[in-house]
Amino acid sequence: VTQLAGYFEPLIKASVGVASKLSDHQQQMTFLDQTKTLAESALQMLYAGKEGGGNPKASHTHDAIAEAAQLMKEAVDDMMVTLNEAASEVGMVGGMVESIAEAMAKLDEGTPAEPEGSFVDYQTNMVKHSKAIALTAQEMMTKSVTSPDELGALASQVTVDYSHLAVQGRLAAHTAEPEEIGFQIKSRVQELGHGCIFLVQKAGALQISPSDSFTKRELIDCARAVTEKVSLVLSALQAGNKGTQACITAASAVSGIIADLDTTIMFASAGTLNAENDESFADHRENILKTAKALVEDTKMLVSGAASGQDKLAQAAQSSAKTITQLTDVVKLGAASIGSDDPETQVVLINAVKDVAKALAELISATKCAAGKAADDPSMYQLKGAAKVMVTNVTSLLKTVKAVEDEATRGTRALEATIECIKQEMALFQSKDAPNKTTTPEEFIRMTKGITIATAKAVAAGNSAHQEDIIHTANLSRKAVSDMLTTCKQAAFHPEVSEEVKNRALMFGVECTAGYIDLLEQVLLVMQKPTAEQKQHLAACSKRVAGAVTELIQTAEAMKGTEWVDPEDPTVIAETELLGAAASIEAAAKKLEQLKPRAKPKQADETLNFEEQILEAAKSIAAATSALVKSASAAQRELVAQGKVGSIPANAVDDGQWSQGLISAARMVAAATSNLCEAANASVQGHASEEKLISSAKQVAASTAQLLVACKVKADQDSEAMRRLQIAGNAVKKASDNLVRAAQKAAFDKADEDNVVVKTKFVGGIAQ
Questions:
Q1: Of 302, 378, 476, 681, which sits with the fewest C-beta atoms within 10 Å of its C-beta?
Q2: What would the mean pLDDT of 138-144 be, rounded to a whole number?
Q3: Residues sharing a CB contact under 8 Å with residue 615, sequence separation 6 or more, in sequence order
C-alpha cells in the first residue's frame, strides 16, 4: 500500500508537466482526466482493502480489489495511447517501439495460467486484430502521400492492436494442437512485431520531414511488408483450425451481402430498381427455388460439420457462403424483373432473402462456437436453434417466391414473413450480448415515432383489407420494429444509464414488440375473417402498443439527464447543406480530373488501360453524384416553393426530422465521393488495393440510395425535379457498378499474374 501511494505524487507532478507541454487543449484535458481516473481507481482499491478489514482473501474484498486493479490497468493503457499520439505528432516514436518490443517479449514468457477460452476464441480475436493492423497499414500508405501529419495517430493504433494481438497470440499458441502449429503462430506474430516496429519508425521519420520522397517510399515498403506478414499470421491460424477459420471468412462474406441487400432495399423503396432487359419474374423463379434448396443442403452440412473434422467444416462453410451469394444475386434479378411500378413487392422479396442471410450468419457463428464440442454442450443446443431458424427462413422465402405472382395471397404472405422476422429480432434483443455501440436518448425517441406511424398504418390496413395496404404495412413494420429494438438496446447500454433505467428500457422494448406482434396477428385474422368484431380488436391491440411507446419515451427522458435539450430543426437549412455538399463533390471531381495514371514500363501496356478505366469510372461517379446533389437541391427548393415544407414549418418535428435526414444523406454522398477520389488516386499510384476502391464505390451507391429515399419522402412524384433526381440517382448507381466491376476484374487478373517460380537448385529451393 505504501509503495502504491508513493508512486502518485511524482506521477501527478509529471502528468501536469506533460499536459503543460501539449499544444492541443483537448489533448491536455484528456490526459489530465486519464491521470485523475488512475488516481481514483487506486483510491477505490485502498477503500476496498480497508472495508475488508485487512483480509484480502475474503471473496467480496478480492473481487472489489480485482475490479479496481482492472480499472487502473485500463487507465494506464489510455494514458499510454495519449502519450504515444502526442509524441508521434513531433516524430517521437520511441515509446511505441518499446511497447511493441515488450509485447513481443511476452510471447516468449513461460506457459500462461490455465486459459479461460478455447483456441477458437483466441483465433477469432487474433483475426480481428490482425485485419485491423493490415487496414491501418494500408491507410498509412495512403496518408503518407496525402496527409503525413495523420501518421502519428495511425502508428499509435498499430501499437495498440499489436499489443492485443500478442496477448491473444500467446494464449492461442498454448491452446493450439499440435504443438508445431502453436510454435508457428508465435514465431509469425513475432515477425509481424518486427515489421510493425519498422513501420512505426518510418512514420516518425516522415513526420519530421514530410517532403522526403525516399522516406515515403520506405514507409510504403514497410506497410506492404506488414500486410504480407499479417497474411502469414492468418495462414498459421488457418492451419490450426481450418474449419473455424473458414467460418470466420464466410461470416465476413455474409455480413457484406446483408449490407449490400440493405442498399438494394433503399433503391427499391426509391422506385429505381429496374431490370436491364425485358424479362418477367417467371424467368427467375426456378433459379431462386433451386438455389434456395441447395442452401438447405449446405445448412445440413454445416450442422454435421460442427461434429466432424475441420476439413468437412471448412468445406461446408465455403459452400454455404458461395450458395448465399448466388441466391442473393438471383433474388435481386427477380426483384428487378417485377419492375419499379411495384416497389413494395420488390422490398418484400429482398427482405425475404435478407432474413435468410441473417439466419445464415447466426448459424455460421453458432457452428464456429460448437466445433469440436461434446453433444451435450450448451453451444450444441444453440447450433440446433440456429439451424431451425435457418430452415424456417428458407421456407418463408420459398413461400414468398410462390406468392409474388399471386395477388390474392401476396399481402398475407408478406405479413406472415414480417411477424416471423420480428419474433427473431425480439429473441436477439433479449440475449445478454451487449451491442457494438451505444446511441443517444434523442435517437431512441426518434425511432419510437416510427412505431407510432407503423401502428396507425397497420390499423388502417386491417380495416381496409386491401393487399397493397397490407404489403406496405408489412415492409414498414419490419423496419420500424427493427430500428426501435436496435436503438433501444444501444441507448440502454450507454455507460451513463443507470441499471434501473436500463432494465426498464429493455422491459418496455419487449412489451412494445410483443404488443406489435399481437397487432399484426390480429390484422392477419381480419384478412382471413373480416368481421366487425375482429376489426374492433385492432383498436385494443393498438392501445397496448401506444402504452408501451409512452413508457419507452418516458424511459428515454430519464436517460437524458439535466443537460439535454430538444433541438429545433429549421427545414430550409437543408438546401444550404445540399449546395455545400454539391460544392464539396465538385471540388473532389476537379481534384480527380487532375490525376493521371502512373507511368509504367512498356511491357505493362495492358494495366495502363485498366488504370485509365479506373480513373474514367471514378470521374463518372464524381460527375454523377454532383448532378444528383444538385437535383436534390432543386427538389428541395420546389418543395419550399409549393409550401409543402415551410421556412417556419407547421409540423416542426416532422419536417425538421425529414430535413435532418436529407442533410445527413447529402453529407454522406459528399464524404463517400471524397473517399472514392482518394482511393482512386492511391490505387492508380499503387498505394492501395482494389478492395479499398470497391468498398469506396459501394459506399457511394449506398449513400446515394439514402439520399434518394430522403428526397422522395415529401416530393411530388410527377415533378420535373423528381424526374431529374431519379435519372441522376440511376447514373450514380450505374457508374458505381462499372467501377466495382473494373476493380474486381483487375484484382482477379492480378491474382492470375502473380506466378511463383520455385528454384530447382537444392540450396536455393530451401532458402526460398
A1: 378
A2: 89
A3: 592, 595, 596, 597, 680, 684
Q: For the beta carbon of residue 388, count every other beta carbon within 10 angstroms.
A: 12
User: How many CB atoms are located within 10 Å of the residue 495 CB?
Assistant: 5
- Residue 372, sorted as left (phi over 0), alpha (psi -120 to 50) or beta, turns out to be left
How many other C-beta atoms lie within 10 A of the C-beta of residue 62? 14
Rg (CA), the chain: 29
One-letter amino acid identity for 649?
Answer: P
d(CA 419, CA 521): 8
As a whole number of angstroms, the distance between CA 469 and CA 462 comes to: 8
| Contacts (Cβ under 8 Å, ≥6 apart) of 700 | 621, 625, 669, 672, 673, 676, 732, 736
Query: Can you tell me the distance from the alpha carbon of 244 to that of 237, in angstroms, rounded to the nearest whole number?
Result: 10
Measured over the CA atoms of residue 422, residue 423, residue 429 and residue 433, the dihedral's sign is negative
DSSP structure class, residue 111 = P
Report, as an integer, the average pLDDT of 538-551.
Answer: 91
Asked if 627 and 731 touch (Cβ cutoff 8 Å), the reply is yes
Amino acid type, 171: L
Cis preceding linkage at 112, omega within 30: no
Count, residues in the chain:
768
The Cα–Cα gap between 128 and 135 comes to 11
Confidence check: pLDDT of 652 > 50? no
* Lowest-confidence region among 209-213, 310-314, 599-603: 599-603
Cβ contact 622:677 at 8 Å:
yes
Does residue 422 contact residue 520 with C-beta atoms inside 8 Å? yes
Residue 332 in contact with residue 398, Cβ under 8 Å? no
Closest CA to 83 of 99, 95, 72: 95
Say which residues have a Cβ less than 8 Å from residue 74's Cβ, sequence separation at least 6.
Answer: none
